[in-house]
Amino acid sequence: MSTAASAEASAPRAAARADDQLVRVYVWEIPVRVTHWVIVVSILILSVTGLYIGHPFMTVAGEARRSFVMGWMKVIHGYTAYAFITAVLARVIWMFTGNKYARFDKFLPVFRARWRGMMPTVLFYSFIRDKPPGYVGHNPLAGAAYVLVFGLYFIEIATGLVLRGVAAPGGSVLHGFVSLAALFGGLYIARWIHHIVMWLLLGFMLHHVYSSLLMSHTEKTGTMESIFSGWKWVPKRELGPGPYRWSHRGEFDE
After folding, report:
1. Is the pLDDT of residue 74 over 70?
2. Are 232 and 30 in contact (CB under 8 A)?
3. What DSSP string runs through 188-223?
4. Is 72 helix (H, G, I), strand (E, B) or coil?
5. b/e map 54-70, b = 16+ CB within 10 Å
6. How far is CA 233 from the centre of its chain?
């Protein structure tokens, strides 16, 4: 084989190797990572303390005023709720101020490119397609799911403020939230909704861990590690056109 022919034969292999080269991409900024973990820890603490407040599962010998278990549970629940509210609001603000992977258009499919990538992603999660979606940040299905999750966050916050307002002193600003109880059909229904949404969020957390492990194993881009470091290792080909990604106004939906 001539030198020219050998060079022509090796060119496609070299191009393929270049496309498979891993590129370090900074995806999740510090505010995204911090709010993510504050929300995760808050949900776990709020669930445990909330379950105790509704159904005390610990008994302590002696007078209640000496142990103050219920009181501590309510105090921890209250301050953790404020941390949760702050993290959720901060993350919403970052949807309009963060990098392109954190923006609101990665959650709300406002562009046609996101809608076109929805079904191939669904087919992958359904094990019908074996190729993972080629998105650096949130894929369209994950982004749309987070819209529902944030909706649950705000329902949980609203019902929680209603329930907190019941016990608040008359002069407290929190007491004003009691008037929102009518939106949920009364205090009893608001408490029931608050409880149900807690279980929905815990169920989502389990699914979120599963899907993250699935994507991390399939894509091998450091998905699980990225929520700690912020960086992913992405094949160079994923930064350009792919079978799941389309362009919008000259820019590829990542």
Report:
1. yes
2. no
3. HHHHHHHHHHHHHHHHHHHHHHHHHHHHHHHH-S-H
4. helix
5. eeeeeeeeeeeeeeeee
6. 20
Mean pLDDT is highest, among 67-76, 86-95, 109-118, 234-243, for 86-95
Question: What is the set of domains in the chain, with CATH numbers?
Answer: 25-241 (1.20.950.20)
What per-residue string of b and e applies to 223-247 under the rule 16 or more CB within 10 Å gives b?
Answer: beebbeebebbbbeebbeebebbbe
Burial class (CB in 10 A: 0-12, 13-18, 19+), 141: buried
208 vs 211: CA distance, rounded Å: 5
Q: What is the pLDDT of residues 16-37, one digit of tens each?
A: 455 568 888 899 999 999 999 9
The two tokens of residue 236 are 């160079």
Rg (CA), the chain: 24
> Is the separation of the CB atoms in 248 and 112 below 8 Å?
yes
Specify the 3-state DSSP secondary structure of 145: helix
First-residue to last-residue Cα distance in the chain: 42
The answer, yes or no, to whether residue 86 has pLDDT greater than 50, is yes
